[in-house]
């Protein structure tokens, strides 16, 4: 059973802190450029308080597999660069005004600069993958980059489509979110020359963790606050994203309620009253709790994937990460 009220990743942060310090130093080094706007935008977003969970997965995976080299550092930094690039691109696509509790980069420097700096970071990410001298790691992360982009396009295609199925929804979040979690974990095992069993277990752990994390994020967008979430709540609704709480509520709705849902998502300019109506509909169907229950299921799957490893402090820290994925408040 999953214990309740585990809402931090302090153990994971502490146990990876030494290597993460090296990762952060490398990140700063690789954002330096004679083109002034590149380090300005890169470091603005990178230093804005993100959890660094994805590179921590690479570090912790290398630790649980007893890595004997330093290549996990460059791979962890490349993972963070990939993630940062997707944030810059996503904010442009979504017209987001906030990111991690701060004004988004696109609002300060414009869409063009945000997209181009995102492209620069992706280029640097691939250079660091090459530095790690692991063709397998390069294959896993380059494949992830392609799949993430495909997931974002799929989400765009299904924008405002209230009839999206659970299967289609899970394919989107597997691609756009869980794939990088999975790849980040897997390359930690690859660079450690670990066994196939360990590699597959960490790959599965990352995938299930990423799904739980995204389900939790979907719930928070309708149940948190701007300050806690670090972005505007309701963004998913205003941007036309059909996420799990809406799918769960729509599935339980009457014919009349389904018509209300359809009218809301067909509106071009959604307003605050529309969002309040959505909150009422979600509440009447217990959709937030249903979403969090689903997140817990995937959190447990992530924990189960770790059972191949002997008990250790790093395994306990990864288990804590799985608890955090569904119980977090931001």
TrEMBL record:
The keyword Magnesium applies. GO terms for biological process: isoprenoid biosynthetic process. Keywords: Magnesium, Metal-binding, Transferase. It comes from the Bacteria. SUPFAM superfamilies: Terpenoid synthases. Gene3D superfamilies: Farnesyl Diphosphate Synthase (1.10.600.10). Its cofactor is Mg(2+). One of its GO terms (molecular function) is metal ion binding. Belongs to the FPP/GGPP synthase family. PANTHER family: ALL TRANS-POLYPRENYL-DIPHOSPHATE SYNTHASE PDSS1, GERANYLGERANYL PYROPHOSPHATE SYNTHASE. This is Polyprenyl synthetase family protein. It comes from PS1 clade bacterium. The lineage of its organism: Bacteria, Pseudomonadati, Pseudomonadota, Alphaproteobacteria, PS1 clade.
């Amino acid at each position: 059973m999953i214990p309740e009220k585990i809402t931090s990743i302090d153990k994971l942060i502490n146990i990876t802190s030494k290597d993460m310090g090296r990762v952060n130093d490398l990140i700063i080094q690789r954002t330096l450029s004679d083109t002034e706007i590149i380090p300005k935008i890169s470091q603005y977003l990178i230093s804005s308080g993100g959890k660094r969970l994805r590179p921590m997965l690479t570090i912790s995976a290398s630790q649980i597999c007893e890595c004997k080299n330093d290549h996990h550092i460059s791979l962890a930094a490349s993972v963070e660069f990939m993630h940062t690039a997707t944030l810059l691109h996503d904010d442009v696509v979504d017209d987001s005004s906030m990111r991690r509790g701060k004004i988004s980069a696109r609002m300060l420097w414009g869409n063009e600069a945000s997209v181009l700096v995102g492209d620069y970071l992706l280029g640097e990410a691939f250079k660091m993958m090459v530095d790690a001298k692991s063709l397998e790691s390069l294959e896993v992360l380059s494949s992830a980059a392609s799949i993430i982009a495909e997931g974002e396009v799929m989400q765009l295609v299904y924008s405002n489509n209230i009839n999206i199925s659970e299967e289609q929804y899970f394919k989107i979040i597997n691609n756009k979110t869980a794939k990088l979690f999975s790849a980040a974990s897997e390359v930690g095992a690859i660079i450690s020359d670990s066994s196939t069993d360990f590699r597959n277990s960490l790959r599965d752990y990352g995938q299930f963790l990423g799904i739980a994390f995204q389900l939790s994020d979907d719930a928070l967008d309708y149940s948190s606050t701007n300050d806690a979430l670090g972005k505007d709540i309701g963004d998913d609704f205003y941007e036309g994203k059909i996420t799990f709480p809406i799918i769960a509520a729509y599935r339980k709705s009457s014919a009349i309620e389904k018509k209300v849902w359809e009218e809301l998502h067909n509106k071009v300019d959604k307003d605050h009253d529309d969002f309040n109506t959505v909150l009422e509909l979600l509440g009447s169907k217990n959709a937030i709790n249903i979403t969090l229950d689903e997140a817990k299921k995937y959190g447990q799957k992530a924990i189960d994937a770790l059972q191949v490893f002997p008990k250790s402090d790093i395994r306990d820290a990864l288990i804590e990460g799985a608890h955090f994925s569904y119980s977090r408040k931001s």
